[in-house]
Amino acid sequence: MADEKHIRVFLDRSELHLPGVQDSVYFEGPQSDAAKKRYQRLRVAFESGYLENLIVEIKTSPSSTPKLSPETIKLLEELVDSLSSESGRAIVALSVMQSCVKALAPEQSIRLHKGDVRHGGDRFSWKEGISMRSLDSNFVTPVLRKHDLIRLNADGFMMTRSLAENYPYSALYKAALRGGRSQWLLLTDELETGRANAEGVLRALVSLLLNRTAAFQELASEVITLAAERASRVKTLSEAISWFESYVDSSAYSARVFEIAMHALYQALEESRHLPNILKPLSQMRSANKKHGNVADIELMVSSHGMAIVEAWDAKYGKPYLRDELEELSEKLSSHQETKIVGFVVNSDPIVRPDIELRRKEIEDIHDVSVYIMAFRQWVEAVVSRFGADPTATSSRWIMCFVESLCQKRRQKAPIDEPCDLWVSELKTALKRL
């Protein structure tokens, strides 16, 4: 059928047909001058440390979060989750390289993994292709091995025969591949068509891989053990709040840690069965916005499948004056008339001038909702009291939920895709002061 996915193979070219997308024609032959220039540009960037510098930056700056759709993030999570000691390594490493190529040379097709100035005999080449094997062995595998992101053979992942077939990488690539094959093929399409930002994909992949390294897992286990011992000493809610305030203020990318700390409190309340509704998983990459149907960072839902939000709280670190946020809230509530409680939580004392108070009351009247603007300590005490939870037991459980979230042990409720190694290292120091 003409509207089915298919490849037509001719003596000198292959034609890829994907429904809804203009046909792509890939000619065989010696590498074109344009492809040679793209390849050289890629080599120069890799030689200058593009991939390694990016990995180091992400390790030291958790705020370097990608702008990706929830669907793409889920795809990347599934791809990385497919990794095991026996399978999936080549596909994930290839995805890293394809993202690099697309970020550095967007006009280069990442479907064409072979390109050579010579063409004849048994050597196959696409005119607009590049030698991914060369880029891999010289620049990608060595860096991934150095940072222990993926355990790869020193010769490189492109030595895998199933990745060397003489037709383009697409949904029709028939070679048998172990691991997240379907996710890789979908990702290739997203990158090639521009539906996903290449550098965003690359940053997300690196972050996910950093959170899987053996060194991180060892550190996480150590910190969780330390947290269990220290959290048991906490006798008052005030003591726990003070510890959270100190850790958040001193941590890297405090705004995101503030969100996680607030969400962890609700995780603790949910696990002790004090919440009357379902806690929605933590939003990823600060994605709480109208486009994704969110009201705020922490949301209580009527059901796990619907979009009805009963209660919502937005973390506002370093933003005590919230006039613009109130206007955005009013727009969001237009789509969520079911919401009954909503508010902003500030790490310092909020600035509630007469204009703020007037607008807050207007929104309450317009949307029939209770709107709060609260300091962190005031909010924690009010939440624990409102749900009738035991302050001491909640304090210990709250600390553990927070620590386990940053240690990647609560991904069902806290799917944190930023690199967490720096945060967890900071936790180790902070817990010793608890």
Word description of this protein:
By secondary structure, the protein is an alpha/beta fold. It folds into two domains: about 5-210, no CATH class; about 215-430, Restriction Endonuclease, CATH 3.40.91. It is about 50% helix and about 10% strand. The chain is built from 15 helices and eight strands. The chain has helices spanning about 35-45, 50-60, 70-80, 90-105, 130-145, 180-195, 200-210, 215-230, 235-250, 255-270, 325-335, 355-365, 375-385, 390-405, 420-430, and strands at about 5-10, 15, 25, 280, 300, 310-315, 340-345, 370-375. The strands form two sheets. The chain has a five-stranded mixed beta sheet with strand order 4-5-6-7-8. A three-stranded antiparallel beta sheet has the order 1-2-3, with no helix packed on it. Strand 5 and strand 6 form a beta hairpin. Helix 3 runs antiparallel to helix 6 (about 180-195), helix 4 (about 90-105) runs parallel beside helix 6 and helix 10 (about 255-270) packs across helix 14. The longest helix is centred in the middle third of the chain and has 18 residues, at about 215-230. It is elongated, with a radius of gyration of 25 Å. It starts with 5 loop residues before the first strand and ends with a helix.
